[in-house]
């Protein structure tokens, strides 16, 4: 093979060899930390050991251990190949592995409720972003579920976030060899990935590792240390064990997710102790432990922690409709279910009455969906823009209003629809589920616009629409014809105006 077909790059741990694919140099499965097994189990990520010769980097690293995606599903996503313990790897798409190129770098952090995810989902292929934007795209695997986020005695909190910091340090130390500029790094992520981005903005350990950030649908769930420890005890208790390194380190990493899945089936039993967390789909979230994550992102940003980082933040109009479909509730929500959701997730004791007054024509299903969209994603994202500007930083706000083509448009602008638009519809994985097997010309047009805005931001700090301010609240609507308008969800904003996301979710009873 010629050199151009088998590009090589030198890293601090040794030389890697990738492949030339569709006009890009592509490297997969490069370790950024040691496998977190054996003595390294539940520890902070440790530096990679050097290797001799040239390491082949053409295959994705194995996904971290995780729960099944759905009932009867395999323990990893169907496109994943679980071979080995080298979960902590990065992948790089670059126009050319030329140290002199110094191109902007975009680093992707996947979502998945902090319990799922891997970079080998075809949706996360960085090729179109790298080609269209003439920049370097990096994706990374990080520990999820018990391995990454369960509060365990004797282990650092937020190990998944520490993995992300280690990957960003790898980018800082190595990306020049791949044609990237370590001083022009943008982190971007969706859902739990956006929650991770928000956490990184607040973490002293991550300071200086990136210049810009894009947070797509930020979840509002950050646990207090007391709540996280109580949840940890419940997960370990499913195996008759304590939530300690001594008890859990001897359990096969691929067996531990079963404990989280078992607890997930009965989380409602813990409603008096855990509050609304018990009504969600995941017992995992970042922990405000006072060390790795000192305070919530809203508090940190309002205090100026990220004033030197440009931020895009936004959400989708109909976030929760995806979960309605996944739960088999489309067309089945009655007034009783809607009232229960309004009482549980609304911003005040009279939330049911307030929502019905603001949305007098809304059906029970729409109210059920709306309050959960607001609580989990929409208002946390809006408030993050407010916090960033309050702290002296710059933010750009967006809302996706374009409807998913599948199921006759019934999903609307649902959760995760933005992801295949950002990477480009590519077939397989999450993209096929929401876009369908063949993207329409309209889909391709909107995707091209979103990619151009995201890559322009990575290059210049300006996505092409006015910055957010609390007076005008100008927002980019992402649709077939993108426009700029005042924040379109004003009714929800007013309902949540006095709510604060500054406090971590508490343990209600000891």
Summarize the structure.
The protein is of the alpha/beta class.
Walk me through what this model shows.
There is one protein chain. By secondary structure, the chain is α/β, with parallel strands linked by helices. Helix content is 33%, strand content 16%. It is built from 17 helices and 16 strands. The chain has an eleven-stranded mixed β-sheet, sandwiched between helices. Strands 1-2-5 form a three-stranded mixed β-sheet, with no helix packed on it. Strands 11-12 form a two-stranded parallel ribbon. β3 and β4 (24-31) form a beta hairpin. α5 packs across α7 (256-264) and α11 (335-345) runs parallel beside α13 (364-390). The protein is globular and about 65 Å long. Mean pLDDT is 95; it is low at 71-82.
Q: Strand content of the residues, in percent?
A: 15-25%
Number of helices: 17
Q: What is the straight-line distance between the termini?
A: 65 Å
Structural Rg:
22 Å
**Mean pLDDT metric:** 95
- Amount of helix: 25-40%
Shape: globular
Q: Which class do the helix and strand fractions yield? A: alpha/beta
Low-confidence stretches: 71-82
Task: Summarize the topology.
Blueprint: E1 8-11, E2 14-17, E3 19-21, E4 24-31, E5 54-56, E6 89-94, E7 103-109, H1 127-133, E8 136-140, H2 145-149, H3 159-174, E9 180-190, H4 192-202, E10 212-216, E11 223-224, H5 225-237, H6 245-248, H7 256-264, H8 271-274, E12 287-288, H9 297-302, E13 310-316, H10 321-326, H11 335-345, H12 351-358, H13 364-390, E14 395-400, H14 418-423, H15 429-435, H16 441-460, E15 474-478, E16 483-486, H17 490-495
Parallel strand pairs: 2-5, 7-8, 7-9, 9-10, 10-13, 11-12, 13-14, 14-15
Antiparallel strand pairs: 1-2, 3-4, 4-6, 6-8, 15-16
